[in-house]
């Protein structure tokens, strides 16, 4: 009984601490318009503005730090950050390690190629080809599932697009919310396939089983800003609607 009481007190104190202290949020800042480094050298984007609005409703202070996407969950598990805001897809595999907030954006996988490449028209033709992806993403997992594919990951999706334009990869698999932006700016690249990414949408991540009280408050705030129109205004601001 005494041990159970100690566990209860520890969890209670952790919840109080998370609600009282400054929340350290990790982001790779490599996924515009959701998260990126602006002209002033600061982390900016849709995710950041969304967190700011949620913090006003839920009542917490926060600070962003830049961490490579593939290192975000390890940093969360190690206690270096309290939360992840990095356009992270809520997959079943990730749910084994983290608790996700309610989803805030839904997307698909886009398959991109050079416009003058007439040889690739379907997914079945990707076997044994070079495929560019962003490191640690759902799209990287998809690429590895393609028979014989040589997967070439980069820290940011911009690097994969550069590799495609330089013909270092044959195809890039990218999240549609980001991919359409690159298509609009690069007329020499086209999309030849669009499919579900198999996730439950973009969500914010918290260390598993440790922040339930704060997560409930966070989700309630997210719902409130969706209901009051603030969320839609952010979608328009970042050309996501």
TrEMBL record:
Q: Under which name does UniProt file this protein?
A: Amino acid ABC transporter, periplasmic arginine/lysine/histidine-binding protein
Per UniProt, the keywords (alphabetical) are: Signal
What SUPFAM superfamilies has UniProt attached to this entry? Periplasmic binding protein-like II
Q: Which domain of life is it from?
A: Bacteria
Report if keyword Signal is assigned.
Answer: yes
Q: Which InterPro entries match?
A: Solute-binding_3/MltF_N (IPR001638)
Q: Which SMART domains match?
A: PBPb
Query: Any keyword Hydrolase?
Result: no
Leader peptide range in chain numbering: 1-20
Q: Which positions fall inside the Solute-binding protein family 3/N-terminal domain?
A: 22-241
